[in-house]
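Worked Example 4.2. Consider the chain below.
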Amino acid sequence: NELRRNHIMSKTGEWATKVLAVIKSGNLDAAIAQIKVAPTVKDLNQLKAAMIVGGLMAKHKNVEAAVNENLQLLSAPRLHRSP
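Applying the procedure from the previous section yields the following structure tokens:
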């Protein structure tokens, strides 16, 4: 399990690592604010994977909801694009 955790953490990007540290510090409002402005779907998926491995998804349901909601928003096709 530790080997798997280290493998996933080594593949986690800089943004996901920083947000994960904010979550671990207990500042969940700041983490949710960062999740809402996540740069890419890939970053959110890396954060989600790291949270699952670290057992944080079950512990922080509001953060899990924010991740899932923003994954849907970033994955959805845009109805309007600026010129």
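The chain has a mean pLDDT of 84. The first helix runs from residue 2 to 11. Compare this with Example 4.1 before moving on.
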